[in-house]
TrEMBL record:
Reaction equation(s) it catalyzes: 5,6-dihydrothymine + NAD(+) = thymine + NADH + H(+); 5,6-dihydrouracil + NAD(+) = uracil + NADH + H(+)
EC number: 1.3.1.1
Subunit structure: Heterotetramer of 2 PreA and 2 PreT subunits.
Protein name according to UniProt: dihydrouracil dehydrogenase (NAD(+))
Function of the protein: Involved in pyrimidine base degradation. Catalyzes physiologically the reduction of uracil to 5,6-dihydrouracil (DHU) by using NADH as a specific cosubstrate. It also catalyzes the reverse reaction and the reduction of thymine to 5,6-dihydrothymine (DHT).
UniProt cross-references to PANTHER family, sorted A to Z: DIHYDROPYRIMIDINE DEHYDROGENASE [NADP(+)]
Domain of life, source organism: Bacteria
CDD domains listed in its UniProt record: DHPD_FMN (cd02940)
Domain annotation 4Fe-4S ferredoxin-type: ranges: 338-370, 371-401
Top-level taxonomy: Bacteria, Pseudomonadati, Pseudomonadota, Alphaproteobacteria, Rhodobacterales
UniProt feature coiled coil, ranges: none
One GO CC annotation: cytoplasm
Pfam families in alphabetical order: DHO_dh (PF01180), Fer4_21 (PF14697)
InterPro entries, A to Z: 4Fe4S_Fe-S-bd (IPR017896), 4Fe4S_Fe_S_CS (IPR017900), Aldolase_TIM (IPR013785), Dihydroorotate_DH_cat (IPR005720)
Length: 435
């Protein structure tokens, strides 16, 4: 059986599945049960500065997007950092770490953007025996209005400055948790690296309004008739998070900076995808909130079985393996030609492919009087839309045309050599370069 043991920044954990800083890691009771359930590590719910803790709303704090089967696709929340005293959290962390030395325990921290505030809290966190810290520069609501969270994460200079303070006053790994509420994720990642960060973790939640109550005419979750934007997470954000992870993993300036991948991870496959894109481990929040701690069992079993099947003995064998295959559009092979093909045995004659292609793509699907659907190769541009809308898995597949065959749409012979936009005759820049 494949070994799931993971070394992230010198912190070993029995598997790469950590719980992200959020309600599942809010207190000793939760974290002990999470460890008993098999989680490899936790990032404790974000700690605030000494003094009176923050206060949460007393009404609903979640909005949700459901799929047609009421499966949770995305959650948005207006919760703040921990609303329990710092002292209590630190005592609990020390006890839990002492009892579970083989699990990773990271302290998430958010204190004012002042050196004294960081200098004051870091030695206290150190005393707990926590394996490292994660700087919460991502929370987009409530705390940002107080000059913390994403208000820091949106300013690379602040990220670099605070990271440097942490590296000065704390001598264990420092992970910088990034906000996705920014145009180019590479900038804050580079700032973290320049400040001396050992790793970045991403993503925190995305600014969002999930629904509007049309009777009350207010966004939900609604607190006494008013709503506010919250942080969006869950399966819906996974594509956004993976792109950001890949951007950091392949950018020459940030390549090699360790990444903890977060955002919508629900299955072992989600985790493997993040890791293939360069994440050294993963963190999970919404899936645990939706299905409970035991979901980690399926994640561990599934990842291990897949690794066995592929012959990967350790997670390090496949971390980053997909990164070289992430490229810019201009380098995609324009000589690669495919056509849609419909499996008539599998087709249930619903007509969705026809409607999609006829109305919004390239009028490349024919419908006969008896509702037999066939692809017109001389019209098909291979956009894949019919595959995506077909309700029957693998009923429509994209078939590659062999080199030497004539594409009936263009009348051109399919070439076997790679050619991209940079040298294409229609590219004015390519023409200029040739001249
Ligand atoms: C209710 C709730 C509270 C959260 N609180 C924190 C927090 O205190 N600190 C933090 O860094 N992230 C916090 N997060 C963000 C998560 O750690 C995580 O980055 C985000 O939910 C994306 O992961 P997911 O899609 O697996 O949920 C919170 C998320 C939720 C849903
Ligand atoms: S791949 Fe696109 S163009 Fe071709 S049949 Fe399907 S929807 Fe139409
Ligand atoms: S969408 Fe799929 S199942 Fe429906 S008609 Fe087209 S090929 Fe058949």
């Amino acid at each position: 059986m494949a070994d799931l043991t993971t070394d992230f920044l010198g912190i070993t954990s029995p598997n790469p599945f950590w719980l992200a800083s959020a309600p599942p890691t809010d207190k000793e009771y939760n974290v002990r049960r999470a460890f008993e359930a098999g989680w490899g590590g936790v990032v404790w719910k974000t700690l605030g500065a000494e003094g009176p803790p923050v206060v949460n709303v007393n009404g609903p704090r979640y909005g949700v997007i459901h799929g047609a089967d009421r499966r949770v696709l995305g959650i948005n929340n207006i919760e703040l950092i921990t609303d329990r005293p710092l002292e209590v959290n630190l005592e609990e962390m020390a006890r839990v770490k002492a009892d579970y030395p083989d699990r990773a325990l990271i302290a998430s921290i958010m204190v004012p953007c002042e050196e004294a505030a960081w200098k004051a809290i870091l030695p206290r966190v150190m005393e707990t025996g926590a394996d490292g810290i994660e700087l919460n520069f991502g929370c987009p609501h409530g705390m940002a209005e107080r000059g913390m969270g994403s208000a820091v994460g949106q300013v690379p200079e602040y990220i670099e400055m605070v990271t440097r303070w942490c590296k000065t006053y704390y001598d264990r790994p420092v992970i910088v948790k990034l906000t996705p509420n920014i145009t180019d994720i590479r900038k804050p990642a580079l700032a973290a690296k320049n400040g001396g960060a050992d790793a970045v973790s991403l993503i925190n939640t995305i600014n969002s309004i999930t629904s509007v109550n049309l009777d009350a005419m207010a966004p939900e979750p609604m607190i006494d008739g008013k709503g506010t934007h919250g942080g969006y997470c869950g399966p819906a954000v996974k594509p956004i998070a993976m792109n950001m992870v890949a951007e950091i993993a392949r950018d020459p300036e940030t390549r090699g900076l360790p990444i903890s991948g977060i955002g919508g991870i629900t299955t072992w496959r989600d985790a493997a995808e993040f890791m293939a894109l360069g994440a050294g481990n993963v963190q999970v929040c919404t899936a645990a909130m939706t299905y409970g701690f035991k979901i980690v069992e399926e994640m561990k079993r599934g990842l291990s079985a897949w690794m066995d099947e592929k012959g990967y003995r350790s997670t390090h064998d496949f971390i980053g393996r997909a990164v070289p295959n992430v490229t810019d559009w201009q380098y995609l092979n324009l000589n690669y030609v495919t056509k849609a093909q419909i499996d008539q045995e599998a087709c249930i004659k619903c007509g969705r492919c026809y409607a999609a292609c006829e109305d919004t793509s390239h009028q490349a699907i024919a419908m006969s009087a008896d509702r037999t659907f066939t692809v017109k190769d001389d019209e098909c541009v291979a956009c894949n839309l019919c595959v995506d809308v077909c309700p029957v898995e693998n009923c429509i597949t994209m078939q590659e045309m062999a080199a030497g065959a004539v594409d009936p749409r263009t009348g051109k012979v399919v070439q076997d050599q790679y050619a991209n936009w940079t040298s294409h005759p229609n590219n004015p820049a390519a023409v200029q370069a040739a001249e």
